[in-house]
Design a protein that fits this description.
Pfam families: T2SSM_b. This protein is an alpha+beta fold. 52% of the residues lie in helices and 22% in strands. It has a 4-stranded antiparallel beta sheet. A hairpin with a 7-residue loop joins strand 1 and strand 2. The N and C termini lie far apart (111 Å).
């Protein structure tokens, strides 16, 4: 068995005539130039596509920002929608009691703790309620209260089913916010 050993490239090229060698090199250069132009064309198309995608994204973002700024201009800031600061939570607690009573939910206990508003901080009223009633009535009453009072937030809701009966025992912790004192005072600027 005879092994073929590859000759070095320089040995093979030395056996070519100068004319064949120049034709081979010219053909190789032509192929390389064509391939490089094809690659360049491909990357230019990719770049143009990326620029077009970027322009579309910028247009969409501009439209979104324009829509959100027009919506923000029609809706007052959150603090402006809050009620003025109250020293005690009695009026709010009375309103909550009426809503639960109208929904058929019994309020078995309630407590209110108040943090007064300052010039730069919101006023806070933490209201803890012990309730007894059907789940649907408790849920409907909370939904009604939260819909009517934008300053009211549910901090904690705990419902337990008793061993007997269909009414649930629950504890609801609410937080009511009020405007800072600086936001409630009329402006005295000339």
């Amino acid at each position: 068995m005879k092994l073929a050993i590859a000759a070095p490239l320089s040995w093979g090229m030395s056996r070519l005539s100068p004319r064949r060698l120049s034709i081979g090199l010219s053909l190789s250069a032509f192929v390389l130039i064509g391939a490089s132009q094809g690659i360049q064309w491909h990357f230019q198309n990719l770049q143009q596509s990326a620029v077009a995608d970027l322009a579309d994204a910028q247009r969409q973002l501009s439209a979104t920002l324009a829509n959100s700024s027009s919506a923000a201009a029609t809706e007052p800031p959150f603090v402006d929608r809050l009620p003025a600061s109250q020293d005690n939570g009695a009026p709010l607690l009375h309103q909550i009691q009426r809503s639960f009573s109208a929904a058929g939910v019994t309020l078995t206990a309630s407590s209110v703790s108040t943090e007064s508003a300052t010039a730069s901080t919101l006023g806070k009223q933490r209201i803890v309620l012990a309730v007894k009633g059907p789940y649907a009535a408790i849920k409907a009453c909370l939904a009604d209260l939260l819909g009517r009072l934008p300053s009211l937030t549910v901090l904690n809701l705990s419902l337990r089913a008793p061993a007997t009966g269909s009414e649930l025992d629950g504890q609801i912790e609410l937080l009511a916010l009020s405007k800072p004192l600086a936001a409630t005072r009329p402006s005295t600027a000339p």
